[in-house]
Amino acid sequence: MPQQKTEVIVLRSVNYSETSKILTLYSRACGKVSVIAKGARNIKNRFGGILEPANYLEIVFYARENRELQFLNQAELIESFPGTKSNLEKTALAMAVCELLDRLETGQEPNPLLFRLQLSVLRHINDTEESAHNIFRAFQIHISDIMGFRPHFDNCVGCRCSLFGKVDFDLAAGGLVCAACKVPDAAEIRLSNDALESLRKLQRVHISKLSGLLPSKTLQRQVDDFLKYYLRYHVEGFRELKSLQFLASISP
Fold this sequence. Notes:
- The chain is an alpha+beta fold.
- It has two domains: 3-80, CATH 2.40.50.140; 83-250, Up-down Bundle (de novo design (two linked rop proteins)), CATH 1.20.1440.
- It is built from seven helices and nine strands; from the N terminus they run βββββααααββββααα.
- The chain has helices at residues 82-85, 88-104, 112-127, 132-147, 193-204, 217-234, 242-250, and strands at residues 3-16, 20-27, 31-37, 56-62, 69-79, 152-156, 167-170, 175-177, 188-191.
- It is elongated and about 65 Å long.
- The protein starts with a strand and ends with a helix.
- 33% of the residues are buried.
- The model has no long low-confidence stretch (mean pLDDT 93).
């Protein structure tokens, strides 16, 4: 039974039996993997308290082909993001990052770009003094790109003409459509000019430079509704993230 050593981010942790935990991990070397950590729920255990969602670890696990659940042998903490865990909003957003990746990624093939994106987003949520939610909004757009359904905000996806003011976004086509290119009965979302410009910035501007974007609650709601419906359309069985539902319940 060969051993695998890799860096991982914990996506989900579920209690199993009276003494163990089952972890869903996203790894740099192996993609998404599930492991059982035997004895992890014991008061005195070799893992300590590091097997929690959004922690960045280096692990060693026993890997057997054609087995869905592997055995965790060793785990060492690399980063725990204390700035996130001392702030309830940041905690909810970090959990949303892990929850979204868990729902979108099903394969066990490595995706270094996706791993780096998640790690970068978790670090920026931890470090930022403002606009943590904008970082998560940008993450939703960038992960859509990596997963193969990048939204097109530049011009009409049909004739490539420039569009201004209020515009329609065709969910099936994955982009803006002008009046001449509209398809009857297509699933569309109307975007205000401000919402469109905000989405363009979330797609193009580095996540460390999103401060001040989306200053009004109305604009935030428009962008969040677009992202929710876009993911729901392109991901079969997609449901609203529990972490965002919790965040909405505590927000003023």
